[in-house]
Amino acid sequence: MVNQVLDNKIFWHRFRPANEVSKRILGAHPQVTMDQGWYDIEDKTHPGLWMNIWSGGKFPDEFIIPTFHAEPRAKITDFLCSEGIGSSSSTFIVSQRCKDLLDNYRLQVHQFYKTKAYFNDQALDYYIYHFYDTYFDIVDFKKTIFYYDFLADFKGDKKKYRDVEFFINSAAELTIKIELARLENLSIKAKPLVFIQEPGLYDLFYMRSIFFGLFITDDLKNTFIKNKITGWAIISSTEYIYDGIHKYKAY
After folding, report:
1. Most confidently modeled of 154-163, 192-201, 229-238?
2. Against a cut of 0.90, is the pTM above it?
């Protein structure tokens, strides 16, 4: 979540590629199935290399690039939703024309794979983007309030951490505190999570740990709209609040 309140301008949008919010546009959710690829480690029913997309980090060198096959009711869109991709926080699939637009923007460090999607007799070029790092430098630490949340394995005294709110001074300090919290089976979240009121290093980036999600600049959002890119959604607000209720707009 991001904000810019001067002149009512919003620099940032929470970005949802091929999400269930866009189901009417996608035609089916998921739109496509993959012939091989990655699934949760507990899933033994699919061939290929498993990869839990929520675990973070890079896909390994032996990652098997899947190809995709459309469901009967699926529409051809620029962002595709496959089982395990599209609704993911950090990984999405885009068409050739969308990739050409993204080439003109500054994307956070990521992995990139070319693949095919089959719609009946059509074999179309698509691209997988996987963002494995997080970008904390965009956070406005003077305005963001942090708190502790409990991981599933937490066995300690919840009263000690419940309702505790605190400030953090920098991205480096936040990274350290996240790691220390994990040692106690805690996570650190933010409410509200406020971004700086100016452009950052990237036009598209991924936020992990304190919030799961992708964000795009207002300029990139408008480029998608101008070029009629399909299969995505945004939440826009002058201030985004963790677990807050916000309306999506799908394209």
Report:
1. 154-163
2. no
59-92: b (≥16 Cβ within 10 Å) or e: beeebbebbbbbbeebebbbbbbbbbbbbbbbbb
Contact 238, 8 (CB under 8 A): yes
CA angle 213, 219, 225 (to 5 degrees): 85
At 123-170, the pLDDT tens digits run 999 999 999 888 899 899 998 999 999 988 898 899 999 999 999 999
Q: Which two tokens stand for residue 131?
A: 């963002």
**H helices within the chain, ranges in order?**
23-26, 96-102, 158-161, 171-183, 218-226
Residues 206 and 16 sit within 8 Å (Cβ to Cβ): no
Contact of 89 with 212, CB cutoff 8 Å: yes
DSSP 228: T
DSSP assignment, residue 20? G
Of 240, 198, 248, 242, the residue nearest 218 (C-alpha): 198
